Amino acid sequence: MICRVAYMSSAIAGLSEASIGDILDTAHRNNARTNVTGLLMFHAGNFFQVLEGPADAVETCYAHIADDDRHSNLIRLFTRTDTCRLFPEWSMGYATPHSLDPRHKPVLISLSDLAKDGAGLEGLKNPEVTILAKQFLKGFIEFK
């Protein structure tokens, strides 16, 4: 079983592309070592990230992310267990609406379905957070 965590947060004002590159470089190194995979999305000053792997490694990674001062308003959307990874080939993939890999559109549709119903999801029990998650994901795909 693998653990999957998703969260949203707001980037600090003026966060540069170089800073995002630093975030990704660190994630690639650390995640490859700890067997964590996932996808980081950035749009309109906000992050949406999915982490997956062994539960202890994912929770440790999430704790480091929570302490990072390059973002604020961290909202943990959900924690799930699953038998397979959504992003097995990426120690940390990265996407903006303009660079999304078409093979990951089904994954984003799945995430948008979670955002639609919000049942059993930690952060999505709050209707305002559900709306925020929907708006963010809408930047990547069209809701049906």
Strand content: 25-35%
| Biggest beta sheet summary | 5 strands, mixed
CATH architecture: 2-Layer Sandwich
Spatial gap, N to C terminus: 30 Å
How many individual β-strands? 5
Please report the first level of CATH classification, the CATH class.
Answer: Alpha Beta
- Whole-angstrom Rg: 14 Å
- Helix percent reads 25-40%
Oligomer: single chain
Q: What string gives the helices and strands in order? A: EHEEHEEHH
Provide a count of the helices.
Answer: 4
In one word, what is the shape? globular
CATH-assigned fold name: Alpha-Beta Plaits
Q: Return residue spans where pLDDT drops below 50 for at least 5 consecutive residues.
A: 117-121
Overall average pLDDT: 77
Any idea how many domains?
1
Give structural notes.
The structure is a single chain. Helix 3 packs antiparallel against helix 4 (127-138). The protein has 4 helices and 5 strands. A hairpin with a 2-residue loop joins strand 2 and strand 3. The protein has one domain (2-138): Alpha-Beta Plaits (2-Layer Sandwich), CATH 3.30.70. The longest helix has 18 residues, at 17-34. It has helices at residues 17-34, 55-66, 105-117, 127-138, and strands spanning 2-11, 37-43, 46-53, 71-82, 93-95. By secondary structure, the protein is an alpha+beta fold. 30% of the residues are buried. Strands 4-1-3-2-5 form a 5-stranded mixed beta sheet, sandwiched between helices. It is globular.
Summarize the structure.
The protein is built from four helices and five strands; from the N terminus they run βαββαββαα. The protein is of the alpha+beta class.
